[in-house]
Structure formats: structure tokens, C-alpha cells
Recover the amino acids of this structure.
């Protein structure tokens, strides 16, 4: 879980800023749905495949990413070919393959932190009117990453305790104690964060210590 | 929209949202469970979406789902089976994921303003079940099926028929979610927000 889908490297795609890559992907997402010519879509899929390969990701990682998508696309292809016709299925397949490969290229070559920062800048106008608070969002994100292993460990503890008493895996009996314990833990975590005055109040930084000791 | 202070999102709310998002992610790590007569193994992740609304309330539930969607978008493998990245949104099932946010909101609203006000135990559990079906199935499908139709070029009717495959599994999850939410509410009373 702690591994992200990003693959470190120094290819041209890695060096492009996150915003530029996301912008191209967004434009491609709209553009590919306006096009319906199989040749053009095929060329787009080929370009996207080359971009994915240019990220120099290990083949095992690529296979793990692409296999489930491939199965899903195959099912959709069969369904579209049966319900409509084969040309429509080909257009659908090429369009989705191009888009998914492009998105994969962005995910493989962009650090999660960079994308997060880009989304933060994108929502900056919202933050100014008080709808989204970047500091709270980043606090939330880091808490999730910190607590996933914790929650999973707790889940296994409860499961083992119930198995030791001869109980079969039962989602309801597992989830009630898991959620109650997690809700109780939340109070402790919130107290710890509040005790450390996080997120810091928005003031010009630097003068905190002198403010506390006026002489 | 009000300013954050007036809206009253406290540190505790942020922590609850994050911890519930962590529960949703962790449920994706659990090996799929085969339930009784239904031969299709079900993952527990969408159960977590219904629970987010039913346990935390509309705003915090929707925020918890929004956090998982954000983590998916930045490329972390937070979805069941280690999926993640922008490709999820580009693919035909992206609508189901985005639908989690309004889904948890609707479940939360129904639980907060309807189910939580009922006093008799069985009526309350039934109302929570209705809220889980409305938010976790109807709303999620209302985004997921048109998205599938646009993305794959399948006519809306065929896409809707295809989506029906998952209804039995999701109904079982809604029943489980209602039982869990009811059980949690009995042992840990919390104001819904």
C-alpha cells in the first residue's frame, strides 16, 4: 500500500511539470471523444503506447497495471460488438486504450506530491473564498496514508480474535468493532493535533517566539 | 458556501474524515469475500462508502469519499485490487468512483434527517437500509451508468442492463452497511454532520 504507482526516473516525461501533463491529458480526454475516425484514434493509441514505454517502467509493473484494464476492455469490446457492430467496438476500444495509456503515462511519471501540489494550485481560488482549505486537505491526506496500515492491522486483529473463538468471517461482526475503535482513536488523534496547534494560524511567520514573550 | 469557521469543520472532523477514508482504503485490501449463495465474490470497498455517509453524516461522509477520490487521482493504489491513477477516471468505470461523493452525501442526509429521528429499532435499521440503497446504489449508478455509456459508446439502455449485474452484490452490501451502521450507532453515539 505504501508504494505509489509512480516509477522514479529521469525521462523527458518525468521532467515535464505536472500541470502541463495534466493539461494535455485533460485536452486529450475531450478531444478523443470528439473524434470517431478509427485511423486517427489508432494513431493516438500508438502515440500513447510509445509514451508509456518511454517512461521506462519495469515490465512487471506495466503488466500489473494493464492486465485488469485489458480484461475490462475485452469484455466491453465483446459487449459493444454484439449489441452494436464491430466498427463501433473498434472505435470504442482504440479511444479508451489511447486515453487509459495516456493517463497511465502521466501517473507513471509524476510524483503524487507534485500532482497534489498542482491540484492545490488549481483549487487556490476556492481556498480564497473559504470553500477548500489546503492545509486541512494536506493534513487529511497525510493522516490517511499514516492510518491505512493501522486500520488494516486492527482489522486483522479483530478477525484473528473472532477466528480463535470459532467464528466465521462475518463483515458485520468485523466492521462494528473496527469502526467503533477507529472513531474512539479519532478523538485521541484530534486532541494530539490540537495540543500541537496544527494547522498553524495564518500569520506572517518568524515572529512567533518574540510575540509570546513581550518585554 | 460559508467560511470554514462558520461551517465549523473542526480538527476532529478532519481526523474523522481521514480515518474513515483510511477504512475505505483498507477495505480494498481485504481479500474479496464470497457470501453464501451468490457466487460472485464481493469487495468491501463500496460498503465503506455507504458506511461513510451513514456513520459520519452527509458532509463528512462526502469529504471522506472525496479524499479517497483525490488519492486515486494523484496516483496511489487505493482502490480494490491496487488500482489507482488517472487511468481510473479515463476508463469506463470512472463514474462509479466519482459517484461515491454524492452517494455518501445522499446516504448521510437521509440518515441524519430521517433515520436518526426514528426511535423503534427495526424502523431505524430499515430507514438506514433505504438510505444506503438510495445513496450507495441509486446515486452511484446514476453517475456510473451514463459515464459507462458515454465512455464505451454503448446505448444507455444496454449500459444500464450491464450495470444490473452488480445489483445483487450491492444489495447485500447495503444490508450489511445498514446492520453495521445501526450497531455502531448503538455502541458509540455521535452527532451526524
Amino acid at each position: 500500500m505504501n508504494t505509489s504507482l509512480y516509477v522514479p526516473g529521469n525521462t523527458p516525461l518525468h521532467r515535464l511539470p505536472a500541470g502541463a501533463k495534466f493539461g494535455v491529458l485533460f485536452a486529450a480526454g475531450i478531444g478523443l471523444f470528439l473524434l470517431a475516425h478509427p485511423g486517427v484514434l489508432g494513431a493516438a493509441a500508438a502515440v500513447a503506447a510509445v509514451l508509456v514505454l518511454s517512461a521506462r517502467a519495469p515490465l512487471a509493473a506495466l503488466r500489473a497495471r494493464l492486465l485488469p484494464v485489458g480484461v475490462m476492455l475485452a469484455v466491453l469490446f465483446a459487449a459493444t460488438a454484439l449489441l452494436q457492430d464491430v466498427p463501433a467496438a473498434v472505435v470504442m476500444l482504440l479511444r479508451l486504450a489511447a486515453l487509459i495509456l495516456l493517463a497511465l503515462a502521466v501517473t507513471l511519471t509524476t510524483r503524487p506530491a507534485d500532482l497534489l501540489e498542482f491540484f492545490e494550485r488549481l483549487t487556490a481560488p476556492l481556498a480564497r473564498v473559504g470553500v477548500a482549505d489546503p492545509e486541512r486537505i494536506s493534513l487529511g491526506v497525510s493522516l490517511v496514508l499514516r492510518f491505512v496500515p493501522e486500520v488494516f492491522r486492527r482489522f486483522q486483529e479483530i478477525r484473528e480474535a473472532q477466528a480463535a473463538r470459532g467464528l466465521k468471517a462475518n463483515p458485520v461482526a468485523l466492521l462494528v468493532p473496527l469502526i467503533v475503535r477507529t472513531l474512539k482513536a479519532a478523538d485521541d488523534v484530534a486532541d494530539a493535533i490540537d495540543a500541537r496547534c496544527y494547522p498553524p494560524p495564518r500569520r506572517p511567520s518568524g515572529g512567533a517566539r518574540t510575540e509570546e514573550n513581550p518585554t | 458556501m460559508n467560511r470554514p469557521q462558520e461551517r465549523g469543520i473542526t480538527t476532529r472532523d478532519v481526523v474523522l474524515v481521514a480515518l474513515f477514508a483510511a477504512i475505505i482504503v483498507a477495505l480494498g485490501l481485504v481479500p474479496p469475500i464470497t457470501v453464501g449463495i451468490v457466487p460472485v465474490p464481493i469487495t468491501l470497498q463500496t460498503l465503506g462508502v455507504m458506511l461513510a455517509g451513514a456513520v459520519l453524516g452527509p458532509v463528512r461522509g462526502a469529504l471522506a469519499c472525496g479524499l479517497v477520490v483525490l488519492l486515486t487521482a494523484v496516483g496511489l493504489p487505493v482502490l480494490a485490487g491496487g488500482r489507482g491513477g488517472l487511468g481510473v477516471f479515463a476508463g469506463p468505470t470512472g463514474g462509479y468512483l466519482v459517484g461515491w461523493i454524492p452517494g455518501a452525501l445522499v446516504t448521510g442526509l437521509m440518515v441524519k434527517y430521517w433515520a436518526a429521528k426514528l426511535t423503534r429499532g427495526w424502523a431505524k435499521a430499515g430507514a438506514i437500509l433505504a438510505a444506503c440503497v438510495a445513496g450507495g446504489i441509486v446515486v452511484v449508478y446514476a453517475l456510473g451508468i451514463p459515464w459507462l455509456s458515454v465512455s464505451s459508446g454503448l446505448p444507455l439502455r444496454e449500459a444500464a442492463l450491464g450495470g444490473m449485474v452488480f445489483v445483487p452484490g450491492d444489495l447485500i452490501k447495503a444490508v450489511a452497511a445498514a446492520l453495521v451502521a445501526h450497531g455502531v450507532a448503538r455502541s458509540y453515539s455521535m452527532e451526524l454532520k
In short: The radius of gyration of chain A is 24 Å. Residues 35 and 138 of chain A are 38 Å apart (CA to CA). DSSP finds ten helices and no strands in chain A.
